[in-house]
Protein backbone atom coordinates (compact mmCIF):
# COMPACT_ATOMS: atom_id res chain seq x y z
CA UNK A 1 0.00 0.00 0.00
CA UNK A 2 1.40 3.39 -0.97
CA UNK A 3 2.06 5.92 1.74
CA UNK A 4 1.02 9.50 1.17
CA UNK A 5 3.80 12.03 1.30
CA UNK A 6 3.38 15.68 2.22
CA UNK A 7 3.00 17.87 -0.84
CA UNK A 8 3.82 21.15 0.87
CA UNK A 9 7.44 21.03 -0.24
CA UNK A 10 6.43 19.94 -3.75
CA UNK A 11 3.78 22.59 -4.30
CA UNK A 12 6.01 25.15 -5.98
CA UNK A 13 7.64 22.51 -8.18
CA UNK A 14 4.22 21.29 -9.26
CA UNK A 15 2.96 24.77 -9.95
CA UNK A 16 5.99 25.89 -11.92
CA UNK A 17 6.63 22.63 -13.73
CA UNK A 18 3.22 21.28 -14.64
CA UNK A 19 2.08 24.03 -16.95
CA UNK A 20 5.36 24.04 -18.87
CA UNK A 21 5.64 20.31 -19.51
CA UNK A 22 1.97 19.77 -20.18
CA UNK A 23 1.61 22.73 -22.51
CA UNK A 24 4.78 21.82 -24.42
CA UNK A 25 3.95 18.13 -24.84
CA UNK A 26 1.17 17.94 -27.41
CA UNK A 27 0.59 14.55 -28.93
CA UNK A 28 -1.53 14.22 -32.05
CA UNK A 29 -4.21 11.55 -31.84
CA UNK A 30 -5.90 10.13 -34.89
CA UNK A 31 -9.10 8.12 -35.16
CA UNK A 32 -12.54 8.58 -33.59
CA UNK A 33 -13.07 9.99 -30.13
CA UNK A 34 -13.78 7.52 -27.37
CA UNK A 35 -17.27 7.78 -25.90
CA UNK A 36 -16.65 7.86 -22.18
CA UNK A 37 -19.11 6.42 -19.65
CA UNK A 38 -20.13 8.12 -16.46
CA UNK A 39 -20.78 11.72 -15.49
CA UNK A 40 -19.73 13.68 -12.43
CA UNK A 41 -22.20 15.67 -10.39
CA UNK A 42 -20.82 18.98 -9.19
CA UNK A 43 -20.58 20.15 -5.61
CA UNK A 44 -18.23 23.03 -4.97
CA UNK A 45 -15.93 23.89 -2.10
CA UNK A 46 -13.34 26.64 -2.10
CA UNK A 47 -9.62 26.76 -1.56
CA UNK A 48 -7.60 29.96 -2.07
CA UNK A 49 -10.71 31.60 -3.60
CA UNK A 50 -10.89 29.07 -6.47
CA UNK A 51 -13.68 26.51 -6.55
CA UNK A 52 -12.81 22.82 -6.51
CA UNK A 53 -15.52 20.48 -7.75
CA UNK A 54 -16.33 17.34 -5.78
CA UNK A 55 -16.52 14.47 -8.26
CA UNK A 56 -19.58 12.39 -7.44
CA UNK A 57 -21.26 9.29 -8.79
CA UNK A 58 -24.73 8.23 -7.69
CA UNK A 59 -27.60 9.78 -5.77
CA UNK A 60 -26.37 12.69 -3.67
CA UNK A 61 -29.09 11.81 -1.13
CA UNK A 62 -28.14 8.12 -0.89
CA UNK A 63 -28.14 6.68 2.65
CA UNK A 64 -24.45 5.77 2.53
CA UNK A 65 -21.62 8.07 1.47
CA UNK A 66 -18.32 6.57 0.32
CA UNK A 67 -15.35 8.90 -0.17
CA UNK A 68 -12.34 7.36 -1.87
CA UNK A 69 -8.90 8.96 -1.53
CA UNK A 70 -6.68 7.76 -4.37
CA UNK A 71 -3.63 8.67 -6.42
CA UNK A 72 -3.39 8.24 -10.18
CA UNK A 73 0.14 6.86 -9.79
CA UNK A 74 -0.85 4.26 -7.16
CA UNK A 75 -1.05 0.66 -8.50
CA UNK A 76 -3.39 -0.40 -5.68
CA UNK A 77 -5.72 2.48 -6.59
CA UNK A 78 -5.71 1.38 -10.23
CA UNK A 79 -6.54 -2.18 -9.18
CA UNK A 80 -9.42 -0.98 -6.99
CA UNK A 81 -10.87 1.24 -9.70
CA UNK A 82 -10.69 -1.47 -12.34
CA UNK A 83 -11.76 -4.49 -10.29
CA UNK A 84 -13.83 -3.28 -7.32
CA UNK A 85 -15.34 0.04 -8.32
CA UNK A 86 -17.17 -1.42 -11.31
CA UNK A 87 -18.96 -3.88 -9.02
CA UNK A 88 -19.73 -1.19 -6.44
CA UNK A 89 -21.16 0.98 -9.20
CA UNK A 90 -23.42 -1.80 -10.47
CA UNK A 91 -24.64 -3.06 -7.10
CA UNK A 92 -24.66 0.04 -4.90
CA UNK A 93 -24.09 3.33 -6.76
CA UNK A 94 -26.41 2.87 -9.74
CA UNK A 95 -29.10 1.41 -7.46
CA UNK A 96 -29.24 4.57 -5.33
CA UNK A 97 -27.76 3.01 -2.20
CA UNK A 98 -24.39 4.80 -2.24
CA UNK A 99 -23.15 8.29 -3.01
CA UNK A 100 -19.57 7.86 -4.21
CA UNK A 101 -17.09 10.74 -3.97
CA UNK A 102 -13.63 10.53 -5.55
CA UNK A 103 -10.86 12.71 -4.10
CA UNK A 104 -7.33 12.79 -5.43
CA UNK A 105 -4.20 12.65 -3.31
CA UNK A 106 -0.82 13.61 -4.69
CA UNK A 107 2.23 11.41 -4.31
CA UNK A 108 4.10 13.31 -7.01
CA UNK A 109 3.78 15.79 -9.85
CA UNK A 110 2.63 13.09 -12.28
CA UNK A 111 -0.44 12.32 -10.19
CA UNK A 112 -1.14 16.04 -10.07
CA UNK A 113 -0.83 16.32 -13.86
CA UNK A 114 -3.22 13.40 -14.32
CA UNK A 115 -5.65 15.14 -11.96
CA UNK A 116 -5.52 18.30 -14.04
CA UNK A 117 -6.30 16.25 -17.16
CA UNK A 118 -9.21 14.44 -15.51
CA UNK A 119 -10.66 17.67 -14.16
CA UNK A 120 -10.40 19.52 -17.46
CA UNK A 121 -13.95 18.47 -18.35
CA UNK A 122 -15.92 17.57 -15.18
CA UNK A 123 -18.64 15.66 -17.05
CA UNK A 124 -15.96 13.27 -18.32
CA UNK A 125 -14.05 12.93 -15.05
CA UNK A 126 -14.87 9.30 -14.25
CA UNK A 127 -14.41 8.19 -17.83
CA UNK A 128 -11.00 9.88 -18.02
CA UNK A 129 -10.09 8.43 -14.62
CA UNK A 130 -10.86 4.99 -16.01
CA UNK A 131 -8.57 5.61 -18.98
CA UNK A 132 -5.79 6.97 -16.76
CA UNK A 133 -5.87 3.91 -14.50
CA UNK A 134 -6.15 1.44 -17.37
CA UNK A 135 -3.10 3.01 -19.00
CA UNK A 136 -1.17 3.59 -15.77
CA UNK A 137 1.47 0.91 -16.42
CA UNK A 138 2.33 2.59 -19.72
CA UNK A 139 2.18 6.33 -19.07
CA UNK A 140 4.00 6.27 -15.72
CA UNK A 141 6.92 4.52 -17.44
CA UNK A 142 6.99 6.75 -20.50
CA UNK A 143 10.39 8.15 -19.49
CA UNK A 144 11.03 11.88 -19.29
CA UNK A 145 8.65 14.45 -17.85
CA UNK A 146 7.83 15.56 -21.37
CA UNK A 147 7.04 11.98 -22.45
CA UNK A 148 4.77 11.36 -19.45
CA UNK A 149 3.01 14.66 -20.00
CA UNK A 150 2.55 13.77 -23.65
CA UNK A 151 0.91 10.45 -22.76
CA UNK A 152 -1.43 12.18 -20.33
CA UNK A 153 -2.30 14.78 -22.94
CA UNK A 154 -3.07 11.93 -25.36
CA UNK A 155 -5.63 10.59 -22.88
CA UNK A 156 -7.29 14.01 -22.77
CA UNK A 157 -7.41 14.17 -26.54
CA UNK A 158 -8.89 10.68 -26.76
CA UNK A 159 -11.57 11.83 -24.33
CA UNK A 160 -12.57 14.53 -26.80
CA UNK A 161 -10.89 17.49 -25.09
CA UNK A 162 -9.30 19.91 -27.55
CA UNK A 163 -5.67 20.99 -27.40
CA UNK A 164 -6.83 24.52 -26.66
CA UNK A 165 -8.94 23.39 -23.71
CA UNK A 166 -6.10 21.22 -22.42
CA UNK A 167 -3.74 24.18 -22.64
CA UNK A 168 -6.15 26.27 -20.59
CA UNK A 169 -6.66 23.58 -17.95
CA UNK A 170 -3.04 22.55 -17.66
CA UNK A 171 -1.67 26.04 -17.25
CA UNK A 172 -4.23 27.15 -14.65
CA UNK A 173 -1.93 28.04 -11.77
CA UNK A 174 -4.77 29.19 -9.53
CA UNK A 175 -6.57 25.85 -9.91
CA UNK A 176 -3.33 23.98 -9.26
CA UNK A 177 -2.75 25.87 -6.02
CA UNK A 178 -6.38 25.33 -5.02
CA UNK A 179 -6.12 21.57 -5.61
CA UNK A 180 -2.98 21.30 -3.47
CA UNK A 181 -4.66 23.18 -0.64
CA UNK A 182 -7.88 21.19 -1.03
CA UNK A 183 -5.98 17.90 -0.88
CA UNK A 184 -4.03 18.94 2.22
CA UNK A 185 -7.20 20.11 3.99
CA UNK A 186 -9.10 16.90 3.23
CA UNK A 187 -6.23 14.54 4.04
CA UNK A 188 -5.52 16.30 7.35
CA UNK A 189 -9.15 16.36 8.44
CA UNK A 190 -9.79 12.70 7.57
CA UNK A 191 -6.31 11.55 8.72
CA UNK A 192 -5.50 9.98 5.37
CA UNK A 193 -2.04 8.39 5.36
CA UNK A 194 -2.31 5.76 2.62
CA UNK A 195 -4.06 5.14 -0.67
CA UNK A 196 -6.56 4.00 -1.48
CA UNK A 197 -8.36 4.93 1.72
CA UNK A 198 -12.09 5.28 2.25
CA UNK A 199 -14.45 7.25 4.46
CA UNK A 200 -17.76 5.39 4.72
CA UNK A 201 -20.38 7.49 6.49
CA UNK A 202 -17.53 9.26 8.25
CA UNK A 203 -15.64 6.14 9.33
CA UNK A 204 -12.18 5.43 7.90
CA UNK A 205 -11.32 2.17 6.14
CA UNK A 206 -8.26 0.86 4.33
CA UNK A 207 -8.22 -0.86 0.94
CA UNK A 208 -10.65 -3.78 0.73
CA UNK A 209 -11.77 -6.52 -1.60
CA UNK A 210 -15.25 -6.27 -3.08
CA UNK A 211 -16.48 -8.95 -0.67
CA UNK A 212 -15.31 -6.97 2.37
CA UNK A 213 -16.51 -3.67 0.93
CA UNK A 214 -19.94 -5.13 0.26
CA UNK A 215 -20.15 -6.44 3.81
CA UNK A 216 -19.36 -3.00 5.26
CA UNK A 217 -21.88 -1.29 2.98
CA UNK A 218 -24.61 -3.77 3.86
CA UNK A 219 -23.95 -3.15 7.55
CA UNK A 220 -24.18 0.61 7.02
CA UNK A 221 -27.40 0.24 5.02
CA UNK A 222 -28.94 -1.83 7.82
CA UNK A 223 -28.25 0.77 10.51
Automatic annotation (TrEMBL):
Organism from which the protein derives: Mesobacterium hydrothermale
Role description: May be required for disulfide bond formation in some proteins.
Transmembrane segments: none
Thioredoxin domain residues: 25-222
Matches recorded under InterPro entries: Thioredoxin-like_fold (IPR012336), Thioredoxin-like_sf (IPR036249), Thioredoxin_domain (IPR013766)
UniProt cross-references to Pfam families, sorted A to Z: Thioredoxin_4
Name of the molecule in the record: DsbA family protein
Amino acid sequence: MNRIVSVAALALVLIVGAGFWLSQSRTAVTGPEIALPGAASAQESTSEAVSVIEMIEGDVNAPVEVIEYASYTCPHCAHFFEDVFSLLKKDYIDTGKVKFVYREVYFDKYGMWASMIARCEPSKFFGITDLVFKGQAEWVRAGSDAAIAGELRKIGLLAGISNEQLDSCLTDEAKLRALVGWYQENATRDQIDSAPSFMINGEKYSNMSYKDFSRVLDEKLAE
